[in-house]
Write a structure and sequence with these properties.
The chain contains 13 helices and 33 strands. By secondary structure, it is an alpha/beta fold. It has three domains: 113 residues, Sandwich (Immunoglobulin-like); 327 residues, Alpha-Beta Barrel (TIM Barrel); 91 residues, Sandwich (Immunoglobulin-like), CATH 2.60.40. The longest helix has 16 residues.
């Protein structure tokens, strides 16, 4: 029912499944509120955004301003200050001194309250690194066989992860791996006795999703690993892959949880043209409640072991309402738990998973290369979908070796790291990226040759460091910049600026007095020079001239609304970009 002062087109408001779900936020994050506000005749009006804390108490009232005269479109910014379920409403009233016209204010129809779900910072902000524990500390013996790394040897690798500035370490599945139909090197159907198997083929004689692969150690070894990571201020994220090997205990105890073919065999997983004979997908139709309760038990089992982040494998192949059930149940008791959706699928499904409760998602950044693609996608995630979809920009994964990295040119690795780490509050990279690993399995494909999914990698990190054949020092600088600048911890503040070259992209992020300007050469081979046309109004600057410090190398510049830049990727990797702090 429209009230005395019609208030429509309110944003951000998230509807899912016929109900309102909370707009995603973290404490002190600025949330722009907009609405169309009208009244009859020619008299003017005012509008306020009212913010209510989790107890329902009104804590602030912020005046809205008309975006441009005559538009009837009003805007304001609010910032919840603590965790929990907050709400906002909009009130419109006659343009008079409200204290002298309380009756007019009372007859305005204040809107209903709209929810905001405020979560811990890690739900939005994080630098992620991925490694396989079995490769960390692995040794190639004199007979050519590989001795697997363990959680005890992987503890030594935590210093490397910490030194690069990562605060989340994601581990692929750490559970027992099945023997039946085990895959060999490069996804071969014929596995040798020495082949370790694919970690996503979960379950064997040693147990299932609540057990540790004996080759990695024991539950105590895992606990020691998590404790050592926490001392270095690294959170360990575990993979939650709801699938099994043919040897998983569930296959015998709960055969109804799987799809059976007419011949009585259990159907293995397929993603045409790929076939995963070593993996059985779960069928949620036969015993939904039983499966849900078992998954809740498993998640809580690992939470009790100190895990508060889960990277969920292929959530889009499971019912969306299942995830809404599970995440709602877990977060109602443990609000600190964060779920990352590994869902490279249709945007509608990715967005639905965000609305269902996933705090973060993998994204299409990996395949956005050109200036126009990056700008379009950047605007989408920072504005269009930011109320319900938090992006995590990964430069690579064990499954994805994007074609633009296959040259092995260090400059492309550097510039993609700059983009990922400054466009998005969360970004990630898989081990080996810093060593410029780039060989594809086949021409035109996007899979690694000798993929770590199927074998143990023995990397000589020390040798690469001594030879200077590593991007690690540059990654450390990027993550240091991120930690020191709150503007890079935000998603909704991304603004693109015009450049005269299609090979150079420029954007800014500002939070309070922290203003960061980023200029990146998207050409990893040729030097590029251009004029950057900074939008001073968007930057919040009044002077045409301003001083900046490049945080990559400490160089100081005097820039203006029209700034000339020259970026040469042939020089040290710091010259693929400027990451500049404006002196305010």
């Amino acid at each position: 029912m429209i009230g005395r002062f019609p208030i429509t087109d309110i944003a951000p408001v998230v509807e899912f499944g016929g109900e309102l779900v909370g707009v995603k936020a973290i404490a002190h994050e600025q949330i722009p509120i907009t609405a169309t506000v009208l009244r009859e005749g020619h008299d003017s009006l005012r509008a306020d955004v009212i913010l209510f804390d989790p107890k329902g108490k009104e804590v602030s009232r912020t005046a809205m301003h008309e975006i441009w005269p005559g538009s009837a479109r009003y805007a304001a910014t609010i910032a919840p200050t603590s965790l929990g379920r907050w709400h906002f409403a909009i009130e419109a009233y006659d343009d008079q001194d409200k204290s002298k016209n309380r009756d007019a204010a009372r007859i305005s129809s204040i809107t209903q309250q709209f929810p905001i779900y405020v979560e811990r910072d890690r739900a939005l902000v994080g630098s992620w690194y991925e490694f396989f524990p079995r490769s960390e500390g692995a040794i190639k013996k004199s007979d050519g066989t590989i001795q697997s790394g363990t959680f005890q040897t992987a503890i030594k690798s935590l210093a490397r992860v910490s030194d690069m500035g990562f605060d989340v370490l994601y581990l692929p599945p750490i559970h027992p791996i099945g023997l039946a139909f085990r895959k060999g090197k490069n996804n071969s159907l014929e596995a040798l006795p020495t082949d370790p198997g694919v970690p996503w083929g979960i379950g064997g004689a040693a147990g299932g999703h609540d057990a540790i692969n004996p080759e990695l150690g024991t539950l105590k070894d895992f606990a020691d690993f998590v404790a050592a990571a926490k001392k270095l201020k690294i959170e360990v994220a575990l993979d939650l892959a709801l699938q099994t090997s043919p040897d998983h205990p569930w296959v015998k105890t709960n055969p109804e949880w799987f799809t059976t073919r007419p011949d009585g065999t259990i159907a293995y997983a397929e993603n045409p043209p790929k076939k995963y004979q070593d993996i059985y997908p779960i069928n949620f139709d036969n015993d939904y409640v039983g499966i849900r309760n078992e998954v809740l038990r498993i998640i809580n089992f690992w939470i009790d072991k100190g895990i508060t982040i889960f990277r969920v494998d292929n959530p889009h192949t499971k019912p969306v309402h299942f995830w809404q059930d599970v995440i709602t149940e877990i977060n109602s008791q443990r609000p600190e738990v964060v779920f990352l959706a590994e869902a490279f699928t249709k945007p509608a499904m990715m967005h639905a998973l965000g609305k269902a409760g996933f705090q973060q998602s993998y994204t299409y950044f990996t395949w956005r290369v050109t200036k126009s693609e990056l700008m379009e996608y950047g605007r989408e995630v920072s504005d269009d979908t930011s109320a319900f979809f938090r992006p995590n920009f990964w430069v690579n994964t064990p499954d994805i070796l994007p074609t633009h990295l296959q040259s092995g040119n260090p400059a492309i690795f550097a510039l993609r790291a700059v983009l990922a780490s400054t466009l998005s509050p969360s970004w990630g990279m898989y081990a080996g990226y810093e060593l410029y690993e780039h060989l594809p399995f086949k021409e035109g494909g996007e899979e690694y040759r000798d993929s770590e999914k199927y074998e143990i990698k023995v990397r000589d990190w020390e040798k690469a460091t001594k030879a200077g054949l590593t991007l690690a020092p540059f990654i450390k600088v990027l993550n240091t910049i991120r930690k020191e600048h709150i503007a890079l911890h935000r998603l909704r503040n991304l603004v693109f600026h015009h450049t005269d070259s299609d090979q150079v992209i420029a954007y800014s992020k500002r939070d309070g007095k922290d203003l960061i300007l980023v200029v990146v050469n998207l050409d990893p081979i040729q030097a590029q020079e251009t004029m950057v046309r900074w939008n001073l109004e968007a930057l919040g600057l009044s002077d045409d001239l301003f001083e900046v410090t490049d945080l990559l190398d400490g160089a100081k510049y005097s820039w203006s609304a029209d700034t000339y830049v020259h970026l040469d990727p042939a020089r040290p990797v710091g010259r693929v970009a400027h990451i500049a702090q404006v002196k305010i």
